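Dear support,

We are seeing what looks like truncated structure output for some complexes. This example has two components. We would appreciate it if you could run it in full and send us the complete token output so we can diff it against ours.
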Amino acid sequence: MAARIDEFLIDVRPQREWGWLVISYLFLGGAGAGLFLVSLYLEHLWAGVLGLLVLLVGTVLLLLDLGRPERFWRAFFRPQTSWISRGCFFITLLFVLGVIELALQWPGLELPAWLSEGTTLRTSLRVAGGGAAVLVMIYTGFVLAPSPAIPFWNSAFFPIIFFAYSLLAGIDILILTSPMLPGPSLDLMLLERNQNYLVILCLLLVLSHVSVMSSSAVAARESIRLLTRGRWASLFLGGVIGAGLIVPLLLALPVVWEAQVQTVFALTFILALLRLFGDYLFRFLVMRVGLYDPLL
Amino acid sequence: MARYGMVIDLDICIGCNACTMACKSEHATPGGIFWGKVLEKEVGKFPAARRIFLPVLCNHCKNPICMEVCPTGATYQREDGIVLIDYDLCLGCRSCMEACPYGPRAFYGGDGAYYENGRTPFEEAKQHFPEGIVMKCNFCVDRVDQGLNPACVQTCPTECRIFGDLDDPQSEVSRIAAEKKARPLLPEKGLEPSVFYIGG
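Here is the complete output from our reference environment:
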């Protein structure tokens, strides 16, 4: 196990510790929580079930990334300072409140009057479930943002970017799985229209972050160079910005304004796939261009 | 209470890596993992080009961000400022490695043998690290508790490292830090490292 030669050089260093398992968790955890949040709004039982399943897969991947997965329960011990610890509580809270919410929505279930639809308790449970979903969507941004070590991550934009991207991905998973989901049919047109607002929001946030970072610390400027002119430029400009945001926005124009229902069905699937691809790629690149400042 | 720290004189470091090897020998760190090392960089242009050396180790910061982000409390700080890792509590999530700007921490995934043919008798005898945890320089805490200097300080042939109590104004480390205007690495990060540099 030889050390790499660049470990002995005074230079900008890339982070190598968090790889595809963490990237996949960032994507699936956010998307699952986003989908659950949307399911509450749409009151769609099976969308909620799917959201929790996606979150579960992401959480398993995160556990597999630990050096000692069997000690995962110890991560609940430092919520006073650690965002990872807080995230464990948020994920647990979402699973608990999510399962309760879905159980209460289960068809044919006889509920006591104090738990029926419209009661204060029921509404409170739903609001708390939605709150837990929002926390799961944004806390990963707070894991990255407070770190002074990697200037590209040290930004208040990340919690908001991850929220927007998580909601976008959650709705895209819903669009892709809508033909197979039991329950009431979904208004794809409405979902697609909302996606365009989210795409514009993501675009503005990502470009703002790039703009702020391009005049920040040495390592952040190098991260931006890698994204815009260096090794990852084609994936960032072509994949995240182009295929993931701008192309779906342009292709969606006829869907939104002309309302040709026949074209909606096929096109929305393609748009959803493109946006999901862009979302995963964005999280991949955030990890790949995480660079430490040089020590001298 | 003491606050242990170190001053390293970059003008007299010759980049021999004796400190690196003393550290490996003292702690039997696994192959490819260095708790302390000497970084280098080429500066200037021919014919005035030269190499500069920067010995690095855990900075045992007064405000250790690694301790703040650790979700289990595995990273902790003694009253004398030394930052340690409790291997029994570490999850191997590596959030400390992501948060520390100095890069002294290493993840140990197992297979600590230096050579391909398996562990040497030395490694068999001294290497008892659990797998799947993060490790780093501990300022040779066992030696310090016995009143000795860390192995890197003891070994340095040019005596470029001075170790001692930063809170004692009479200590050699404090006097030299004050006289020669010692500065830490990346002070703008706000972590208040206990390792300072002079010269260079």
